[in-house]
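Morning run. Coffee first, then this:
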Amino acid sequence: MMLEKLKQLFPHLIEANEPYSDELLWFETDEKEMFGIQPTLISERELELLKLIATPIKMTERKNIGKWYAYIYENKEMTSVPKAVRFFYFFSNRPIEERELLTNTMEGVMNEPAFVWLSDQHGWIVEEEPNAAAETEEIKQIIQTITADFFIDLSVFVGQMHQMGADTRDSILREIQLVEAIQPIIPKGQEMMTFSEMFVAFYLDSLSTNFFSNNVKELLTETEIRTTIKTFIEQNLNVSQTAKKLFMHRNSVQYRIDKFIEGTGIDIRQFKEAIAVYLYILHKERID
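And here it is:
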């Protein structure tokens, strides 16, 4: 790789995913490898040689990318601070060569997104002044299109909307830690997870199902019962919506719900009762 050869010639070279400091001179190789170097550590002749080998990068050309990386990891303040921000964390199963396409596509559903490439396979999309509710369905459709057209498995984790303030950096860093913990264990083929889904998945990994009675365990081994109960809870405990979702008669749905309640003593028509059963089902699906 070109960067490895350059390190032999310029031992003070600093490899980075994105420019993050005005104090360094930044370059990009033909292989899209980014690096910086202190101007005081090279001669004019060496600088001219570097310009022939790699493309100089100006910080002003990449200010959005640089400022968010520096804000999170270098603890540097920003000159222009938005009122609110949301981070989207993306991961790919192979190097993403279609960067321009991904950027242009996301610009259609986000407010001036800034891409932060942490590697050729993952990074952040930072949306300043986001809508309160993320356009998750539109983003999911975009991911599915890119996956189908370019034979790439892309996963996106949707962060929370953060109001900018003194503790925002720490909140985003905790969010990054959550994403890093969840990303390796998500089911294959799941294109997107919201923050709430990540939060639940994180605690599912430490959940023990040993506390549930054999009645619960045995009833939920029946596929029809388990599917009906799970869908019922996901449809906000609405029998009619559950029947519509499962293409079933309403009476059949009600029969299975009643069967579960009578067999376990857990009244899943009540939210506090239903949530425990729902977590049990999710946990079993994850480990089975």
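The longest helix spans residues 271-287. Good start to the day.
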